[in-house]
Amino acid sequence: MKQSLTYTLKVTLTTLLLCTPITFAIMMGYLRLLPLISSNYSFNVNLDIKDAAVFIVLTFCTLLFNMRKIGGTAPVTYNKPNIITNAMMTSIAIFLVYLWFREKLMYLSIDEFLITYGPTFLITFICMRVYALRNEESQAKLI
């Protein structure tokens, strides 16, 4: 459980630190490109830090749940791709339901949604792929 908690904290804290500046940079880049794409455009982007925090908490919970569930059935190895896929899809689905209940999806077009929330999803997915996930048994054998 210690390794899964460490892995989850690394992923969520890195996402929390990187989501605002990277999303802002992508927003500014898109706003610079928008006049080249269309002469008549209307664009509204609003990344609420509370929404990002909700997504990160959901990711934290789903990662821990998926690692506990998978670790219980096969304690020898972690199936990292399965954990990543299940955690990402579950947290994104629950986050979309959260946005729908808060009525934040009603006024966003698809490009506004992707520019606002896409970088956070992408950062989380990249962090999950990059950070190593070791199980406790292999860690104990190394010591």
Please tell me what the overall shape is: elongated
Distance between the termini: 17 Å
SSE string, helix = H, strand = E?
HHHHH
Q: From the alpha carbons, calculate the radius of gyration and give it in angstroms.
A: 18 Å
Oligomer: single chain
Mean pLDDT: 82
Q: Can you count the helices? A: 5
Helix/strand-derived category reads: mainly alpha
> Could you give the count of β-strands?
0
Uncertain parts: none
* Biggest sheet descriptor: none
Please estimate the helix content. over 70%
Strand fraction equals under 5%
Question: Can you give a write-up of this model?
Answer:
It is a single chain. The chain is mainly α and 143 residues long. 78% of the residues lie in helices and 0% in strands. The protein has 5 helices and no strands. Helix 1 crosses helix 2, helix 2 runs antiparallel to helix 3 and helix 3 packs antiparallel against helix 4.
Question: How do the helices and strands line up, and which of them pair or pack?
Answer:
Layout: H1 2-37, H2 49-73, H3 80-101, H4 110-130, H5 136-142
Short note summarizing the structure:
This protein is mostly helical and 143 residues long. 78% of the residues lie in helices and 0% in strands.
Keywords for this entry:
5 helices; 143 residues; mainly alpha; single chain
